[in-house]
Write the structure tokens for this entry.
Amino acid sequence: MRMRALERKLLRDLGRLWAQALAIAAVLGCGVAVLIMALGVSDALDRSRAAYYERNAFADIFASVRRAPLTILPEIRALSGVRAAEARVSEFVVLDMPGRQRPATAQVVTLPEGRDTTLNRPTLTFGRLPNPDHPEEVVVGSSFGEAHGLRSGDTFAANIGGSRRELTVVGAALSPEFIYTIGPGSMMPDAASHGVIWMGQRAAEAAFNMTGAFDDLVLGLDMRTDERAVIEALDLILEPYGNYGVHGRAQQISHSFLDAEIEQLRVMAYVLPPVFLLITVFLVNMVIGRIVALERLEIGLLKATGYSDGAILAHYLLLAGLVAAVGIVLGSLGGTYLSRWMAGQFARFYEFPELIHSVSWTTHALAAIAGFAAATVGAVRAALSAARLPPAVAMAPAPPPHFNRGVIDRALDAVRMATPDLMIARSITRWPLRAATSLLGYALATSVLVASNFFPDSLDRIIDLAFDQSNRQDAILTFPSDVPDIAVEEIRKLPGVIQAEGNLSMAATLRHGHLEKDATLQGLSADADLARVVGENGVIAIPDRGLVLSDRLAETLEARTGDLIELDLPGHLADPVFVTVAAQVPQVLGLGAYMSPSAINAMLDRAPAVSAVNVTLAADEAAAFHAAVKTMPGLGGAILLADNRRSFEKTVAENIGAMTTIYILLGSAIAVGVAYNAARIQLSERARELASLRILGFGRGDVSWVLIGEAMILVVCAQPLGWWIGYQIAALMTRAFSSDLYVLPLVVQPATFAMASLVVILAAFGSVMLVRRRVDRLDLVAVMKSRE
Amino acid sequence: MFRTSALTKIYETGSVRVVALDAVDLTLNGGDLTVLLGPSGSGKSTLLNILGGLDHATSGQVWFRDLELTGLGDRALTRYRRDNVGFVFQFYNLVPSLTARENVRLITDIAPDPMSAEEALSLVGLSARLDHFPAQLSGGEQQRVAIARAVAKRPAVLLCDEPTGALDSKTGVQVLEVLDQVNREMGTTTVVITHNAMIQRMAHRVMHFADGRLVGDARITDRLAPSEVAW
């Protein structure tokens, strides 16, 4: 089929405009790529998780109890809507791994004997399940096994129930319960220092003195069962046995971290791509507008020869559509690649048997629709003006641009600018809307960089608050349950310990009116030096009476200082008590609720007790300390904060490095798109003027300045606005990214603003310099001979 | 003032070869108002562009006083234009974003010994329109601004390519009067290209071009005043 002339023109136009089209397509492509990456990865995580949960029968309800008899199981299984129930023993233990000086910790979880577990089924990655007749046999979590190079038959020691036991690895497994495995007190998974161990039921019952009993319960529900009703019923059943709390998936650690991640990715998909699409609208509007102005005579001719308004409209919309198509294809390819890359990154923290990461066609379709919509919106004004142009008017040359002397001109007279500078100033004041559009474009480029690069600043603040100010201990030794505070003295006697302070923490449910939230209640004494609550104005001494709430918890409960909070301490108190809110503090990690330990012990009517001990260590005696901890009876865990910090910083550095590169590319794409197109249009409009200057004896540098100057002035002026917009986007993102697990503080360092501006200014400068080469090649003679 | 020797300019685009100037030898005297006549494509504009340092010759030589233009690079040609040459074009080529005064200042800002912009504009009779933008001026007025801009630097030569080509007779005469006045009062060597044979009557010298060659060269003894020229 022969191509029609107008179609041929379309392709030729696109060929002629390739550099400008590519600059626009790159901006659009970035938006499409971010959309596909963020939605693609969040979909991948969501779908992989759903499939995994389904296949491995992930539980719906989780309960923790001090010690309940197995005889109550039939009653629980008989609850309406309960499909399956598994009673388990779950304990934290300290491990002595071969070749590792520092202790590691693990969560021991039991598997039923003589049958498969009905819930939270582990998937073996190698080996087999433990043989009930061999109590020393265990299956280890896959990543923990890999981190320690464990194979079937390898052994390691564990401090179980106060005595040292040799355990033999018979396999490794993944579980939907531990997609994200994070040690107590950690901020990031660290496979080497914390893992999961599956043991046979009988072996664990014997080891933890839980024969005929359980301390951990998981339930599977029938579809459409009211989760709350089951939780309430189970609460009542477990009440007599020291109920530590019953909750649904939303509060299961692994599930909630994954939820937060998926939510963050979705926020990214809804915040960043619109910026790119908006800029695409501007750029298409600018470029198609100029093309219509240049093709005035041709439009007149086409209409005079009988092309309809619709055909003209379609012609220019189609041109924008072709540019969009290029951007969508580039963006889809880039986004698919990025989503695979990012899924690979996530696979390091989230353990799935398989990560389903095909980007769905609906995501591609959504991206394509958004891309075409942006191009159409951008082109429609110019295309309509072309379609509406009467042929007789079109065939006459456009009237010259009209300038008037205004207030600004009188001001310019006063400073007596050099004439090229005056030309720049006039161009900006004559087309303020266009200048403002370019300025906004540059500002958005800067804002994208600010909004995406503030994460390291924010994380630095988290590290500072969490480690340098709040948690200054070198290690935390935890006990399976609260112990008399004499334990602090025993730990102080361990080799290498400089300071030792007791620490009390327990699960709590807080209620204020109809609002309710589960959190951890911590007992911190006013003179505590190692674990402290730090507010904006420094350390906050926990008062002798009353409750101190983190801002986020207070917000959730809509509680203020002076309000009465109903406090439930499951497993510790039969009836709730009422406590006054004494203060509120900003907190970055978790939902903090604090009281003085003496107030908690008084409330519980018991002798002073602690659940953990914070210690600082003499560096040269760390080895002796580690060795002592590995064999100390009665310890539930040993958290080494230096390890935590190191793994957190390492992970952050790796991720941030890659993401920063990506965002610099994205921000540059916008700056290049705006600067290159603006300069090309300027050149096209002012070629004659610039050639006149050359003929009059101005050098190339002077003439180029008229072209480059406007872009550089606008890009520099755009920076403060870009910082402001970036800061607002960052604020929006911190709010969206914050969850009950952590609150991202909004911190943007001057260096981040400076970096963003530097990238945008350099990208803009590079782009106009590309256009400047065309100034050097201006054909002076031809320009002078032609009528505008 | 100018001297050319076997000046040749050949345009080659693909397989098409056009000889715009074919071994032209000529001399232009200082202070003369010379009119170049000839049909389109006869080579007069090409000659003007080479004399003005806008274009390079294919072969042959051009001297401005003792300066050989044909040997100059781009930077030196810019310098030559800036210091010595004033241009006037058919389509004025004013910068639309600058007022009349500012358009002239384009030159006075960079020329070594310029007159003031106001003086240049009063020379062309536009003292009352200093702060008007090109869009607010008539065609004749715009061309007079262009002339003021060209002469403000007190150039040694004024090169005019169809200066009245876009103007009606009455405004055209006004423009010619200004050119004649500049030539008389400032002694500026002036070269004018035109299709309008009537204009030759006001020149000191008339050169005819055809097919890239100089085919006629005459001195005018009975010059007319511009006001007596009509078309």
In short: The CA atoms of residues 147 and 198 of chain B lie 21 Å apart.
